[in-house]
From TrEMBL:
The UniProt record lists the keyword Lipid biosynthesis: no
The entry's keywords: FAD, Flavoprotein
Cofactors, names only: FAD
Source organism per UniProt: Isoptericola peretonis
Keyword Nucleotide-binding: no
Pfam families: Pyr_redox_2, Pyr_redox_dim
InterPro entries, per database record: FAD/NAD-bd_sf (IPR036188), FAD/NAD-binding_dom (IPR023753), FAD/NAD-linked_Rdtase_dimer_sf (IPR016156), Pyr_nuc-diS_OxRdtase (IPR001100), Pyr_nucl-diS_OxRdtase_dimer (IPR004099)
Segments forming domain FAD/NAD(P)-binding: 11-327
Stated name of the protein: NAD(P)/FAD-dependent oxidoreductase
Family note: Belongs to the class-I pyridine nucleotide-disulfide oxidoreductase family.
Occurrences of domain Pyridine nucleotide-disulphide oxidoreductase dimerisation (ranges): 353-462
């Protein structure tokens, strides 16, 4: 017999503690609110345990191997013998503390919040039910509910796939060794980063992408650059390919493509996008449409009366920095809403959302691509420069491939988008993000002094190319 638990009244319930939910919980608790954070898995979410941090540690290791292999051209001899053991150890011990979130929980508790382990769902305005290991707990949130449920790996409905022991990012970061061979289903950010990581550790890698090119949301020039590096490193790429069947016989996977090709590999990584389950989250009980993959929010992250939503599920960019940016705005709005009902001052502005895919070359992008800008009806002027032929690229030598592409609103004379790809693409991106965000006139960008010989000095050449059109 289950006993009915009394409803616990609190100020705020946070369902899901991804990077944004964790951050907002701390902010609200430190401000003196009574906050309960509900987490089904690990406090911190995908990023610290299965996403950004462990995968970037893997990237760091594979980049070290690639640099060591360039020594022959630059500085003599380095015998390179890849070993996955230090990678697995760093991911387990340093990145994820063996997938244990004690420190994160303690940090929230120190801030004054309570963490409840379980799966939460809205059951009505201000009402939350949590399925815990010991039964159900119910909360009434007088100030509001903040949703930060994040996403799960999506698994395409390919015949046979569901019955196989495929990897998603969650298994890939727990790899105890680099497999002999790997098929990667999906050539987006996850697929490309991990394909190159494992290839550099000696794994024979084949990427199968349904779309026309790798990293589709980025500029085509960036996709081409990456594809040519993948080819040079022996990573197979099949674009426009449909997998019709997956089998797992004996030790390996067999993928059958629509043209009859069969790909055989020891491991299969499914990196084909993400999914959400809004129905299970109970959002319909507060009037939010649960039929899609995202929840519409206003510029203060409000989705319904007393409901704020942040993170990947808002559809404004599935990145940790977006989740945390939204957390700050939502927390301020929740606090201010209680004071005078008016809400916070800061409004979300997504004109200059940056992203970096940590392949080598690193691909950084901000704002609109050329195609998106044209679709938006902007009078577009573009400028492109090749990083390898810049002074720094020339000095750098092997591994210098890259580019800077600028997208200008020619009427306004400001940049609305930019791509920086190369050895330090993500770092070059910083100044371009500032230019897009602050609408720095292109005339001013041309008058600036760019240190010689840096990679970011290539921006000057890309600006000169804008003038040539
Ligand atoms: C392999 C990989 C690499 C990535 N690399 C980068 C990178 O380099 N840079 C970058 O900016 N982004 C990266 N990302 C994306 C980044 O991880 C996410 O954008 C980020 O985690 C923000 O997600 P979120 O805040 O929406 O929630 P998530 O991080 O997805 O966390 C949501 C949390 O909510 C919990 N939850 C869900 N539903 C419930 C419920 N009903 N009750 C209780 N708890 C619930 C989940 O258990 C989870 O812990 C990467 C992602 C992956 C998968
Ligand atoms: N460095 C970073 O910031 C970083 C790194 C990894 C992930 N992320 C975030 O996580 C999100 C999810 O990453 P992801 O790579 O899984 O998704 P994604 O949406 O970026 O890419 C998925 C790819 O899989 C392809 N695909 C889908 N179904 C397929 C099928 N049946 N067969 C072959 N290909 C198929 C899609 O065409 C797409 O190109 C990213 O969009 C990004 O926002 C960020």
């Amino acid at each position: 017999m289950t006993t009915e638990q009394p409803v616990e009244t609190v100020d705020v319930v946070v369902i899901g503690t991804g990077p944004g939910g964790e951050d907002a919980t701390g902010r609200l608790a430190r401000a003196g609110l009574d906050v309960v954070a509900v987490e089904a898995r690990l406090v911190g979410g995908e990023c610290p345990y299965f996403g950004c941090i462990p995968t970037k540690m893997m990237v760091r290791a594979s980049d070290a191997l690639a640099e060591a292999r360039r020594v022959a051209t630059l500085a003599g001899r380095a015998d390179v013998e890849p070993d996955w053991a230090p990678v697995a150890r760093r991911v387990r011990d340093e990145a994820t503390t063996d997938w244990d979130d004690t420190v994160a929980v303690e940090r929230l508790e120190k801030a004054g919040a309570r963490v409840v382990r379980g799966r939460g769902r809205l059951t009505g305005p201000g009402e939350v039910a949590v399925a815990t290991a010991d039964g159900e707990r119910r909360f009434r949130a007088t100030r509001g509910v903040l949703l930060n449920p994040g996403t799960e790996p999506a698994v395409p409905p390919v015949e046979g796939l569901a019955d196989t022991p495929y990897w998603t990012n969650r298994e890939a970061v727990r790899a105890s060794e680099a497999p002999a061979s790997l098929t990667v289903l999906g050539g987006g950010a996850i697929g490309c980063e991990l394909a190159q990581v494992f290839a550099r550790f000696g794994t024979s890698v084949e990427v199968v992408e349904a779309g026309p090119r790798l990293i589709l949301p980025d500029e085509p020039e960036a996709s081409e650059l990456l594809a040519s590096r993948f080819a040079a490193e022996g990573i197979g790429v099949r674009t426009g390919a449909q997998v019709v069947r997956v089998g797992h016989e004996g030790p390996g996977f067999t993928l059958t493509l629509d043209d009859g090709t069969q790909l055989v590999s020891e491991r299969l990584l499914v990196s084909a996008g993400r999914r959400t389950d809004l129905r299970a989250l109970g959002v319909a009980s507060v009037g939010i449409d649960d039929s899609g993959r995202t929840i519409a929010v206003d510029d203060r992250m409000r989705a319904a009366d007393g409901v704020w939503v942040i993170g990947d599920v808002t559809g404004h960019g599935a990145f940790t920095h977006v989740s945390m940016y939204q957390a700050r705005i939502a927390a301020a709005d929740i606090l201010a809403a209680g004071d005078d009902g008016g809400g916070g001052d800061e409004r979300a502005d997504y004109r200059a959302v940056p992203h970096v895919t940590f392949t080598d070359p690193e691909i950084g992008g901000v704002g609109l691509t050329e195609a998106a800008a044209r679709d938006a009806g902007i009078a577009v002027r573009t400028g492109v420069t090749d990083l390898a032929s810049s002074s720094r690229g020339f000095v750098h030598g092997p591994g210098n491939e890259g580019l800077v592409k600028l997208v200008e609103d020619a009427d306004a004379g400001v940049l609305v988008g930019a791509t920086a790809a190369g050895p330090a693409g993500g770092e070059i991106l910083a100044i371009l993000t500032l230019a897009v965000q602050a609408r720095v006139p292109v005339a001013d960008l041309r008058r600036m002094i760019y240190a010689y010989p840096t990679f970011h000095r290539a921006i000057e050449s890309a600006l000169a190319d804008l003038a040539d059109v």
